[in-house]
Write a structure and sequence with these properties.
alpha+beta, 9 strands, single chain, globular, 4-stranded antiparallel β-sheet, 3-stranded antiparallel β-sheet, 43% helix
Length: 332
């Protein structure tokens, strides 16, 4: 596996051997082997204190669950350095909008505003379906020799027993700081192919993590059902899976919803979500904040601050209305 031609322009550190990688990460060689865990020792042990991750299951709205794999402090610091000094130096595809500085769900939705039809598709188990071997390949294409690429891939992936077959093999852990950037790099070919396919149909394409959106005018509307089949075929060829239950074809006559925002006339928050948040804030003023913390958030004030800040980032006028109510809350 040779580095891609563009790698010559990437300002990443030169690491020529496993020993040089250990030195770069300020580790002894034995420590590097332990954290990379290429032999799967942490997977084989039944003692969680020896493993490198904490685990938490989160429920999804669909009734399924998502496994959050949070690296322990030392491993997390190693991943943060790899992210800051290697992965963040590699440019993402223009169609990718998730986890990138200067891009957001607002920029993800923006190209689809006012379009006659919007096609929304969702990738199944986005992080967990990206294998450890694929991550090692990413580091080889960046330009690292096989021994270094394999160790970097080991540090950035995980395998765990007891949570189903999907997680038993090395994969990208959802919860590691390196996973979003690596997922974007693994999806680069998908973004190239789908952006080209969209252009051929006079359509726009953007992706936010596992959410894909394509939109266009009358010509695109005429072929959108067939087009979704082509998209699914490309994703399958690139080793991604479509969650077909979440595929939506949304015309202007319905609410065109993407990543929790609407795109019919402008990028905006969903009215029902805004009204619920406004009611919660108003009741906090009238009845006290504690009475409205129905989900038991340990930092309820910060939780509401974050939700109001999100609305402000999407619609300044609506955000200002919520901010005025938030400022009236008498916090205990």
């Amino acid at each position: 596996m040779q580095p891609v031609a563009a790698a010559a322009s990437w300002d990443v550190p030169a690491i020529e051997s496993a020993g040089a990688l250990a030195e770069w990460l300020l580790l002894y060689p034995s420590e590097l082997e332990w954290y990379a865990d290429l032999k799967g020792l942490a997977y084989k042990t039944k003692r969680p204190r020896i493993g490198h991750y904490h685990y938490r299951l989160l429920g999804k709205g669909s009734g399924s669950t998502r496994l959050i794999e949070a690296p322990k402090p030392t491993l997390k610091e190693l991943q943060r350095r790899i992210l800051a000094e290697i992965l963040n130096k590699i440019p993402a595809h223009p169609a990718s909008h998730g986890f990138l500085r200067g891009r957001s769900i607002k920029t993800y939705v923006g190209p689809h505003v006012g379009k006659r039809v919007v096609l929304k598709m969702d990738l199944q188990d986005f992080f967990a379906n990206i294998s450890g071997a694929r991550i090692q390949t990413v580091f080889r294409t960046i330009g690292y020799p096989e021994s270094v690429a394999d160790l970097l891939g080991g540090i950035c992936t995980n395998a765990v027993r007891g949570y189903g077959e999907l997680y038993r093999r090395p994969h990208l852990p959802q919860g590691a700081p390196t996973s979003p950037a690596l997922a974007n790099l693994c999806a680069y070919r998908v973004d190239c192919r789908l952006a080209g396919l969209a252009r051929s149909a006079g359509a726009e394409y953007t992706r936010y993590a596992d959410d894909l959106a394509l939109s266009g005018g009358e010509d695109f509307e005429d072929c959108v059902e067939r087009f979704s089949t082509h998209v699914a075929a490309i994703l399958e060829e690139e080793s991604f899976s479509v969650n077909h239950r979440k595929t939506r074809i949304m015309r202007q006559t319905v609410r065109q919803r993407l990543a929790g925002l609407t795109a019919n006339q402008r990028v905006n928050v969903i009215r029902a979500d805004f009204d619920r948040l406004k009611a919660t804030l108003t009741n906090c003023v009238r009845l006290g904040a504690i009475s409205q913390n129905h989900e038991g958030h340990p930092l309820f004030r910060e939780h509401l601050e974050g939700r109001v800040g999100f609305v402000e980032s999407i619609n300044a006028a609506k955000g200002a209305r919520l901010r005025r109510i938030l400022d009236k809350i008498d916090w205990p």
